[in-house]
Amino acid sequence: MRRIYLAGPDVFLPDPQAQAQAKKALCARYRFAGVFPLDGGLDLSGLSPFQAGLAIARANEELMRSADLMIANATPFRGPSLDAGTAYEMGFMRALGKPVLAYANVVGSYAERVAALSGQPLARSPAGHLVDDRGMAVEAFDMADNLMIVGAVEASGAKLVLAGVPAGAEHTDLTAFERCLEQVAQLFA
Amino acid sequence: MRRIYLAGPDVFLPDPQAQAQAKKALCARYRFAGVFPLDGGLDLSGLSPFQAGLAIARANEELMRSADLMIANATPFRGPSLDAGTAYEMGFMRALGKPVLAYANVVGSYAERVAALSGQPLARSPAGHLVDDRGMAVEAFDMADNLMIVGAVEASGAKLVLAGVPAGAEHTDLTAFERCLEQVAQLFA
Predict the structure, then answer these.
(1) Banded model confidence at residue A37, pLDDT cuts 50, 70, 90
(2) CA of B142 to nearest chain A CA: how many angstroms apart?
(3) List of domains in chain A
(4) Staple partner for A52: which of A44, A67, A90, B63, CB 3.0–4.6 Å?
């Protein structure tokens, strides 16, 4: 049975195991095995916080190496882009040559989210590029997030799934996650 | 001569080529060749914005495969964490087994930046974890950013270099970048 690494900031939810079980149950319905980042069964006792963090990072990388593909929760997290750890893991799986699928429970463009962050509309540089309030260019590729993120999913033969969800359900709603599972089923059909 | 991929949101600066040349000049001083993400020499004419974005993503991945190691600008970008594309690229290089070095022109902890984002102090969950204003856990591993990011640098035998810089110079100051080059020189001594 193919193993799907379940990347995302779901690990930071108040009850991450509930989310893990819900995702794994959906994976099983499509005859895949879900692998959650907390599945490493690590014993962190006696480690400093810093050393514990490193041990978790190593364990997550081993879990990714043991998995066949990934479905990432790429919903914007504490800013206009996805969680940094999730972005890292998408790059990691892509370099391993394994399919990277992803969803984001958000509608609206990356540029709109950057504008919201500064509380003012985006300006244009003298050269005509959209820029943020620091004068740094805002990507304008009709993509929902950074081009490396969207590029990884497209290179995997899939589409980043976007879905509007009720406020507060951005990191728990699994409708878009299940759309990813449908894409996985087609990829391996 | 070893090739260093120069990851970071430097590509979004008003004059990215000036930054590229400055970084490459420093690399040369340490007898390395700097490779900037814009070095692909892509012809994007005739492509839709979306297809152009995908072409850039593919080109960046090829540049990373051609490089021997990476120095990433992991300075917080549009939020408390580094740029999403940079995080992706750090994971990509790490999975290729190539050294990942990084710097961040910032002082202060990740937790402090999360608190600043919401404009209120972090609370504690019933279980005692630091949580943000949505109740999602904030990593508390004495790390400057997500544990996968710090973990990649540590696994490469290096240290994430942190430096305070004058306001406005967060994405141009190269003092910490040069500290990374010194680490690279030691790694390959």
Answers:
(1) very high
(2) 6
(3) 3-106+146-187 (3.40.50.450), 109-143 (no CATH)
(4) A44
